[in-house]
Design goal:
Blueprint: E1 6-9, E2 16-17, H1 19-32, H2 40-44, H3 51-61, H4 71-91, E3 97-98, H5 102-112, E4 118-121, H6 126-135, E5 144-146, H7 159-172, E6 181-185, H8 188-197, E7 200-204, H9 210-216, E8 220-222, H10 228-231
């Protein structure tokens, strides 16, 4: 029977429903650059690969950048990403909420397994990720919280997941194998990260990218955070 020794959680679409605040911040950015807003459902499909990619996709949709590489586009993306991050920093908790069952499941896991290491690995910049977790009281569950700017490469590159495995192994005083680790997320990016790092993948079908998640075929799937405990045998 599979017994996980390390749990690594994505943030957006997994722990928190942040799509309204992210969409509002993207639309504020587009408005700032003189373009009409995009529907929330459209922006939701762009979330998951980090702030710069989110901004790039929105700008491309609004025809502010070109289909082909252009040095002027790179400068605009750089400026717009910084504008977006500054706006989002102020508005990141306007409408963001925990998904149902998240606090219940994390509390139950911690009560049943006090020493089980858990961490956050997101492509969101690390400072807002940590601030959001603090706001909702989630930081007490996690020994580490890494963001998209914590490493030289974002998910699905395995750099972050392998660092967390190493840190958890050191903290536990015994090696934790990738195969004993579960990456929990809502999109193909998280499943691909798990595959690249040699870990198991648990897909959260209630999140922002259910279609891409289904196509990625995670090892386990849940329709609610309430199911984490039973599905993982915790």
């Amino acid at each position: 029977m599979f017994v996980p020794k390390l749990l690594i959680f994505d943030l957006d679409g997994t722990l928190v429903d942040s799509q309204v605040d992210l969409a509002n911040s993207i639309n504020a950015t587009l408005t700032h650059y003189g373009k009409p807003e995009l529907p929330l459902k459209t922006i939701a499909t762009y979330i998951g690969d980090g702030a710069a990619t989110l901004v790039r996709r929105a700008l491309a949709h609004s025809h502010l950048i070109h289909d082909q590489p252009d040095p002027h586009d790179d400068e605009l993306i750089y400026q717009a990403t910084h504008w977006f991050i500054a706006y989002y920093h102020v508005h990141k908790l306007d409408f963001t909420t925990l998904y149902p069952g998240v606090l219940h499941a994390l509390t139950m896991i911690r009560e049943r397994h006090p020493a089980l290491p858990m961490a956050v690995l997101t492509n969101k910049p690390v400072n807002p990720s940590r601030a959001i977790c603090r706001h909702f009281g989630l930081d007490r569950f996690f020994f580490q919280n890494y963001g998209g700017n914590s490493f030289s490469r974002k998910k699905p590159d395995p750099e972050g997941i392998l660092r967390l495995i190493s840190e958890a192994s050191t903290a536990m005083g015994a090696p934790i194998k990738p195969a004993e680790t579960v990456m929990i997320g809502d999109s193909h990016v998280d499943v691909e990260t798990a595959r690249a790092g040699g870990t198991k993948a648990l897909g959260c079908a209630y999140g922002l990218s259910p279609k891409s998640l289904e196509e990625a075929k995670p090892d386990f799937s849940v329709s609610s955070a309430f199911e984490w405990v039973d599905v993982l045998g915790l």
